[in-house]
Amino acid sequence: MNESPTRLHAVPRREVASDSTPPLLEFRELRYFVVLCEELHFSRAADRLHISQSPLSQAIAQLERKLGTKLLDRSTRHVELTDAGSVLLEHGRRLLREAEEAVGATRRAGAGEVGSIRLAVGAVSHEAVLPALRHALDQRLPGLTVEVAELSADEIVDAVLHGAADAALMTFAPANDEIELKLLRRDSPVAVFGPGHPLSGRSAVTVAELARHRLILPPRTPSTGTHEMVLAMFHAHHPAAVRTADDHSGDDSERHPPHYVHVELLSLSGSTSSGAKYK
């Protein structure tokens, strides 16, 4: 008698959730849970969340199923946290806070409010503009690091053009199609007089009055723009004599008559005890 061979049939295996896989929690569920814990009242919590009580109750119930534990003791009169609920509340608050901070930091980074900026500045801008600018940046963009390099005017332009600086502060920026200029403030040029000068003590002087005296210009080499700008102020009134500051060395009383008085014109805001604004 022949026996038929035994046949084996495959039985579908039930997939059992691994205990090592943490449940996937949603920030929406955590926010609902935290608000409910703060109110300890479903109706008030639902009002704060701008939802009805039904989706709030469903979210809390689903959260408990995911975690496999009871988070709240409910009654018709009050809601109380269980020990497990107290633990989740502490961590939930931290996670929501960190998520909010992450969103804010990401948006600030996208808007250029964090990171670093390299500034090239001239000597005048370093003293007259940079301190106030850095204070404003610290207040508005605390996550921004400002790196400063003090350079001559000609070096500043090269630094921007060749990528060594992201931006620059200059008293007189040269016209250049490769750079974009933004006016930050306007300053009045100041004439600085030596002791006993006939114009000293004045609050303001005219270019015509200054032109009657010898004019000392800023050096051309470190700041061509400043040198040329000062000369342009006197296009209608030629100075009695012109000398650049870097040409001076030693006592020039023998080379110039004693009635010549040195006048230096700077681009600084405000006047000093030995200076006056020109008009």
How would you describe this structure to a colleague?
The chain is α/β, with parallel strands linked by helices and 279 residues long. The protein has 3 domains: 27-110, Arc Repressor Mutant, subunit A, CATH 1.10.10; 115-169, D-Maltodextrin-Binding Protein, domain 2 (3-Layer(aba) Sandwich); 190-278, D-Maltodextrin-Binding Protein, domain 2. Helix content is 37%, strand content 16%. The strands form 3 sheets. A 6-stranded mixed β-sheet has the order 7-11-6-10-8-9. The chain has a 3-stranded parallel β-sheet with strand order 4-3-5. Strand 1 (72-74) and strand 2 (79-81) form a beta hairpin. Helix 1 (27-39) packs across helix 2 (42-49). It is rod-shaped. It starts with 26 loop residues before the first helix and ends with a strand.
CATH topology of the largest domain: D-Maltodextrin-Binding Protein, domain 2
Question: What is the distance, rounded to the nearest whole angstrom, between the alpha carbons of the first and last residues?
Answer: 129 Å
CATH architecture of the largest domain: 3-Layer(aba) Sandwich
Count the helices. How many? 9
- Alpha-beta classification: alpha/beta
Strand content: 15-25%
Which whole number gives the mean pLDDT?
Answer: 78
Q: What profile does the largest beta sheet have?
A: 6 strands, mixed
Integer tally of domains: 3
> What is the CATH top level name of the largest domain?
Alpha Beta
Order of helices and strands: HHHEEHEHHEHEEEHEHEEE
The low-pLDDT segments are: 8-18, 247-279
Major sheet: arrangement of strands: 7-11-6-10-8-9
CA-based gyration radius = 38 Å
Helix content: 25-40%
Let me know the number of strands: 11
Tertiary shape: rod-shaped
